[in-house]
Write a structure and sequence with these properties.
It contains two helices and two strands, in the order H-H-E-E. It has 242 residues and is low in regular secondary structure.
């Protein structure tokens, strides 16, 4: 008679409170229920975590680089200083997760939901965030150089002091976003909605960029860009920057 041996997935679901520093490289944990699991410092490099449920889990300082995380649920999880470099997070649900200091560079975040996430000093360089929900994120001093944010939802986002050089905001919604003191050199703002956004002390912003975007009278522009409203929606720009 063959004894029924529990799978790795089943074992982890039973012992989810005791997984600190676990070595799970390349593990197949698709669809596992690890809600509130303790995975601090765990090694999950290259693991299959598609559709995994990690809501409210403690995963700070974990290594998830190159992992398959599409449709994963990280809502409310502690991912402080975790490494997601090169991971696939397409359609992942990460609302209100703590991603402060996390590495999300070179990741696939297309259509992921990061609404209200803490992204202070996070790295999102060269990542594809097309169509992602980034509304009301707290991303001051974060790094987004050359990131793809086409069609992303960034209403109310705090990107103050963020590095946004070369980022592509085409068709993105940035209404009431705080971009104060951010760096926008070479960023693509084509059809970006900047109504009510704070651009007061941004670095590298040009009149050409503003002319391709959508602004209104509530948009705060840097002092070196002068604006003359000719109607409720039409305006003329004068760049006084030396």
């Amino acid at each position: 008679m063959t004894e029924n041996t529990p799978s790795l997935k089943e074992k982890l679901e039973r012992s989810k409170r005791y997984l600190q520093n676990a070595d799970l490289k390349g593990a197949d944990l698709e669809g596992a229920d690890l809600e509130r699991a303790l995975l601090v410092g765990a090694d999950l490099r290259g693991a299959n975590l598609k559709k995994i449920y990690l809501s409210e889990a403690q995963i700070s300082k974990a290594n998830l680089s190159g992992a398959e995380l599409s449709e994963a649920n990280f809502s409310g999880a502690d991912l402080n200083k975790s490494n997601f470099g090169g991971a696939n997070l397409q359609n992942a649900y990460m609302r209100r997760a703590d991603l402060r200091g996390a590495n999300l560079s070179d990741t696939n975040l297309t259509k992921a939901n990061l609404r209200e996430c803490a992204l202070y000093k996070a790295w999102v360089k060269k990542s594809d965030c097309s169509g992602a929900n980034l509304q009301n994120i707290k991303g001051s001093q974060s790094q987004w150089q050359d990131a793809m944010l086409k069609g992303a939802k960034l209403e109310g986002a705090d990107l103050s002091g963020a590095r946004l050089e070369g980022a592509n905001f085409e068709d993105a919604s940035l209404q009431t976003a705080n971009l104060n003191r951010s760096v926008l050199k070479g960023a693509n703002l084509n059809r970006a909605d900047l109504r009510g956004a704070n651009l007061r002390y941004v670095v590298g912003l040009t009149c050409d960029q503003i002319e391709t975007a959508q602004i209104d009278r509530k948009t705060l522009l840097p002092s070196y860009i002068k604006i003359n409203w000719t109607s409720e929606t039409a305006f003329e720009l004068i760049d006084d920057k030396n």
